[in-house]
Amino acid sequence: MGVRSLASSILLHFLLLLLLYEFGVVRAAQCSTKEQPLVRNLNELPQSNYGREGLSHMTIAGALSHGMKEVEVWLQTIAPGSKTPIHRHSCEEVFVVLKGRGTLFLASSSNKCPGKPQLFPISSNTTFSIPVNDPHQVVNTDGNEDLQMLVVISRPPVKVFIYDDWFMPHIAARLKYPYYWDAECFDSPKDEL
Ligand SMILES: *[C@@H]1O[C@H](CO)[C@@H](O)[C@H](O)[C@H]1NC(C)=O
Q: Which of 47, 86, 113, 166 is the most core-located residue (most Cβ within 10 A)?
């Protein structure tokens, strides 16, 4: 190996280490309660579809990202025609619809499978809560307008069980944990209370 290629290989390793370090620091800042100001501007919080088409999710206050212990607050926007998966979780969940309109599909946890869900129209300025463990799905049924909701859950981080359809047995629903938006901060060390 010549001096030139040795030098460029050292430089490359150095740059790689720098990149890894920067990534770690940025990630730690996003996943730590200590680095964040008390009052935060919603427009500056991370927002992403986390790989789910037609969704925009923002964790306003989260267990993994902000050290919340009892509740977690999300701002979610579902594009026209898009929907959440059919899913359940063993925590309380409260929705406040800020914009748009859609349909809540809600089934029961008491039979072997969810079965045919009940339909509830939802629209801006309505609120509803999902009974613990009841399978549900929120669909934006409007052709033009986004459906935007403020969502509060208890017992974070959420453990979601996903159904393929309403007739899949409860025991066959697949656990998705950490959930899409929790994956990023799942392994970072947590601040002490
Ligand atoms: C929702 O409530 C706000 C505040 O009271 C009001 O300005 C808005 O018109 C309401 N929207 C609908 C669709 O009722």
A: 86
Does residue 98 share a domain with residue 19? no
Q: Is the CB–ligand 1 distance for residue 5 below 6 Å? A: no
Residues 6+ apart with CB under 8 A from 111: none
**Residue 125 alpha carbon, nearest atom of ligand 1:** 1
Tell whether ligand 1 has an atom less than 6 A from the beta carbon of residue 124: yes
- For residue range 19-72, list pLDDT tens digits in order: 655 555 555 557 766 778 899 999 999 999 999 999 999 999 999 989 999 999
The pTM of the full predicted model, rounded to 2 decimals, is 0.83
Q: Are residues 26 and 49 in the same domain?
A: no
Residue of the CA atom closest to atom 7 of ligand 1: 125
Instruction: Verify that 148 and 83 share a domain, yes or no.
Output: yes
